[in-house]
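Hi C.,

You asked whether I'd gotten around to modeling the 152-residue construct. I have! Everything is below, sequence then structure, no commentary in between.
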Amino acid sequence: MLLGDWRMFNFIKSIAIILLMVSLQFGLYLLLYNQKCNTWGATNEEVTASMEGDSIAPFITSTRAITIDAPVADVWRWVMQLGADRGGFFSYNFIEEALGYITRDQQIVEAGFDDFVVGDIVRGSIEEEKSLIAYRFPVVSVKHEQYLILEN
């Protein structure tokens, strides 16, 4: 075998090993972790329940839940602050900064934000032109103190 042929064989072998490793990791994720990740914190009743917005993206099948020991009105005020141009994006600051997102301090609860209405945009960054990806989530449906549904 010539030296050039040997290098090509090693290159193809290396690519095949990498593809096998990636496929194995993806398969293990789907088999072992995907369901747990998509139903984090939710009860079986919540996972199987029909919810507002299910028809918008029927191919997405995730239901995550948390229990908050607070009145609905207090939680709703936090939800109405969602967005970089409101109270914050409620994410990890180190991730937002690495992606170029500029947002407000999310430790403050301000009562001054009106409820979202259909067509409003929940923005991921105040200065979207500096962001790696300009996240904008249009409000698709909202019912006061019950649900807020965003596109995407």
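If it helps when you're writing up: Strands lie at 121-123, 136-143, 147-150.

Thanks,
B.
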